[in-house]
Design brief:
- The protein is of the alpha+beta class.
- 22% of the residues lie in helices and 30% in strands.
- The chain has helices at residues 2-5, 10-17, 92-102, 110-117, 158-165, and strands at 21-25, 33-36, 38-40, 43-49, 61-67, 74-85, 118-132.
- Strand 3 and strand 4 (43-49) form a beta hairpin.
- The longest helix has 11 residues, at 92-102.
- The radius of gyration is 22 Å and the shape is globular.
- The protein starts with a helix and ends in a 14-residue tail after the last helix.
Length: 179
């Protein structure tokens, strides 16, 4: 349990502050899924269940893949210890308040519905990030895991060199003649 007690790094905190969703790899062989989350006390909170994002039950650990909100680049991959927060736990109400604050959409009856039909997961990132600073990430709308594409090769063609010299009117690329 000493791995779960390791504190979250400043880099992880900064990346989590700038992300609205993260990719969750449950280590069960299924592809990673994009999920929305909230943060509280160094932990990542996720709600799943009826009417919410659907994720498989989590084991003792999972992998968090954090991406840039602007361009989707993979910024950080880190392991996280997983625990389920039950409605009878003292911290359940505080976790729900954090999640409701990040939730998009209607809040009517959410607390009661979550108490009856949903699961709240608390993930505590630990250890050294497995990956940081990958140049580009391709994400699929089908819920597939983000992947790093093969590096592009640059090919110089006559069309590429011709367009490098031509500039449109609005960039003051054409000669200005008065008639």
């Amino acid at each position: 349990m000493d791995a779960a007690a390791t504190s979250v790094t400043a880099l992880t905190e900064e990346v989590l502050n700038k992300s609205a969703v993260l990719w969750l790899d449950a280590d069960d062989g299924s592809p990673a899924r994009a999920v929305w989350f909230a943060r509280r006390d160094g932990r990542v909170l996720i709600v799943s269940g009826a009417g919410e994002q659907q994720i498989a039950p989590l084991g003792e650990e999972a992998t968090l893949i954090l991406t840039s909100a602007g361009d989707g680049r993979r910024l950080l991959t880190i392991r996280a210890a997983v625990e389920q927060i039950h409605p009878d736990d003292g911290e359940w109400d505080a976790a729900v308040e954090s999640l409701i604050g990040e939730r998009r959409g209607s809040h009517d009856g959410v607390r009661d519905r979550w108490r009856e039909e949903a699961t709240i997961w608390a993930l505590r990132p630990f250890g050294v990030p497995e990956q940081a600073g990958v140049p580009q990430v391709v994400t699929s709308p089908g819920g597939q895991a983000p992947s790093t594409p093969a590096p592009a090769t640059s090919v110089v063609t006559p069309a590429a060199t011709a367009t490098a010299r031509w500039r449109p009117w609005h960039l003051r690329g054409r000669a200005t003649r008065r008639r």
